[in-house]
What does this fold into?
Amino acid sequence: MAYSHPQTATTSYTNTAASTPMRPSTPEQQPYHDNITPLPRANPFGTPLTSRPASFRNSSALDLSSAVDLHHKGLSQRYFHSRRVRKGEVERPWMDKKDPREKWVTIIPLIGLFVGFALAGFLVWDGLRTVTNHVYCPVLDEDWSNGFNEAVWTKEAEVGGFGNGQFEQTTTDEENVFVKDGSLYIKPSLQDAKLIDTNNVIELGDACSSDVFSNCNAATNTTNGTIVPPVKSGRINTKKGATI
It folds into this structure.
């Protein structure tokens, strides 16, 4: 059986002897001057003519070539068509009939949120309810308008520093603690210079507000370089009077 194929343009491959030098003792011949015409290749995607109608087999090769060109042209046009999915082209069968159980997917989380907010509100309310509301009353209201009330206030007299290393002497004298024009004054003053420059001892005795010996006694020793507190000041408390 004979098959007719589309005509294929032939290509001639030529070469000159000048481009390729001849070797010595080589016969003078020009093998590259022959025109080589390749055989037409069969279209692997073409339909054999035996399976086509007789009317098509009798058609010319030009008609077959035109049909193949149109076929490839149509494929190329279809390839560049838009692939965008248009509304209504996608099937959504789940929209035709809804499952009645799907509503619980929304209802159950909402119930959980409601229960959580309710529980949080109850805990806040219970915490506020258990807070004890104390009723406070004033224990001491001192404006110093009546002077220094010794029934409430106590002046402290010590030389021990009150546990934090204060290098001073607190006294009960009016020089360091007094009330003036409705105001309390705690005023520091310098120690007597004789008690610092010479060997002397300060003994508070019964006036001391502490029962610790070092808090009630101090000495100046010029030999070892120790001195009594060089500053006097005041300190008061309400231990004898008002209590909370």
Q: What stands out?
A: Confidence is low (pLDDT under 50) at residues 1-19. DSSP finds five helices and nine strands in the chain. The beta strands are 154-155, 169-170, 177-180, 183-186, 189-190, 200-203, 217-220, 231-233, 236-237. The helical segments are 54-57, 61-79, 104-129, 193-197, 213-216.
